[in-house]
Amino acid sequence: MIFSKIDMRKILLFILLFVGFRTLSQMSVDYPYNNQVFQRNFVNSAEVSFLGKVPKEANKVEYQLIAIDNGKEKSSAWKVLDTAAIGGFYQGKLDILGGLYKLKVRSLNKNIVLDSAVLNRFGVGEVYIIAGQSNAQGIERTYYESGTNNEMVITANFSSYYKPQEPDKFSFIGENNLDFPTDKFEVLKNSAIIGPTGASNFFWPQLGEKIANTLNVPVCFFNVAWSGTSIRNWAESSRGIASKNPWIDAYYAKGFPFDNLKQVIKSYAGTNGIRAILWQIGETDNVKQMSTTDFVNYFKEVQSNVTKITGLKIPFVLAQSTYNTGLINGVCGPLIDNSKIIAGYEELFKSDSNSFLRGPNTDLIDVPRLATEPEACTHFSPKSFASLGSAWFDKLIYLYSTIRVANAPIPLPSFQKYCGKLNSNMLGFSSTNFDLYSDSDVLIKNNNQVYENLNGKKIYMKYIGNQNIILKSPLISINNFSKPEKPVLITKTSPNICDGGNVVILNKDKTPIYWNTGVLADSIKVSNSGSYFAFKQDNFNCKSDSSNSIKVSVYDNPKQPTITQSNPYFLYGGLKVYDTEYHWSLNNLDLNKSDVYLKVNQPGTYKLYATKSYSKELTCKSTLAEFSYALPNDGGLTAYPNPIGVFGQLTIESISNLSNATYQLLDLLGNTVKEGIITTDDSFKLDVNGLATGKYILNIITKENKVYTRQILAGK
Question: Is the pTM of this model over 0.85?
Answer without folding.
Answer: no
